[in-house]
UniProtKB/TrEMBL annotation:
It is an enzyme of class 3 (hydrolase). This is Lipoprotein signal peptidase. The chain crosses the membrane at residues 79-99, 106-123, 143-168. The lineage of its organism: Bacteria, Bacillati, Actinomycetota, Actinomycetes, Kineosporiales. Coiled coil: none annotated. It holds the Pfam family Peptidase_A8. NCBIfam families: lspA.
Length: 191
């Protein structure tokens, strides 16, 4: 018989996942770092770039090009800024609720990135001109043949890729994996 773990210690998941508290801290650290990077780079872009003027950062591979975006990614939905404000707020709340169930490092990382991106762009929509809830998002990074974006957008894209990988691998929020469903007896090759 083993000694019980004191209640102050994080409890490991029976499926072998990491303790819930450490995953919450991982997600919080990722979200905080992503948000800080987003807001810092936006402030630097606004202070040092001229809107519409392109400046090379890594030659023609990555350029700086400051714009104010009232729409969503790829310039979609211009004029519907308030809708994106509501969506960003809803995503942020949904992620915070999901984080209570996370027992997977991959999901903690993905949700932390998603939260950083959603809150980063939500901040712009709440505090930037032309007004609360209608603020335009600061975009300033440009790749060849790609729309102008920011660090928050990068966090959201990375989160989406990670969520897709976790989904394809069958990893659930609780750290368990979906089992392959068999439909009947397997035939031997060549039968």
């Amino acid at each position: 018989m083993s000694a019980p773990v004191p209640p102050s210690e994080p409890q490991p998941d029976p499926a072998g996942g990491a303790p819930r508290r450490s995953l919450w801290w991982l997600a919080a650290a990722v979200a905080t770092a992503g948000y800080a990077a987003d807001q810092t780079t936006k402030a630097l872009a606004v202070a040092n770039l001229v809107p519409g003027q392109v400046r090379p950062l890594l030659g023609e591979v990555l350029q700086l090009h400051l714009i104010r975006n009232s729409g969503a990614a790829f310039g979609l939905g211009e004029g519907s800024t308030w809708v994106f404000t509501i969506v960003s707020a809803a995503v942020s709340v949904a992620v915070a609720v999901l984080l209570r169930r996370v027992r997977s490092r991959g999901w903690a990382l993905a949700l932390g990135l998603l939260l950083a991106g959603a809150v980063g762009n939500l901040t712009d929509r709440l505090v930037r001109a032309p007004g609360v809830g209608r603020g335009h998002v600061v975009d300033f990074l440009q790749l060849p043949s790609w729309p102008i974006f920011n660090v928050a957008d990068s966090c959201v894209v990375c989160a989406a890729v990670l969520i897709a990988v976790l989904g394809l691998r069958g990893v659930r929020l609780d750290g368990t994996r979906e089992r392959a469903v068999t439909t009947g007896p397997q035939e031997a090759p060549g039968a």
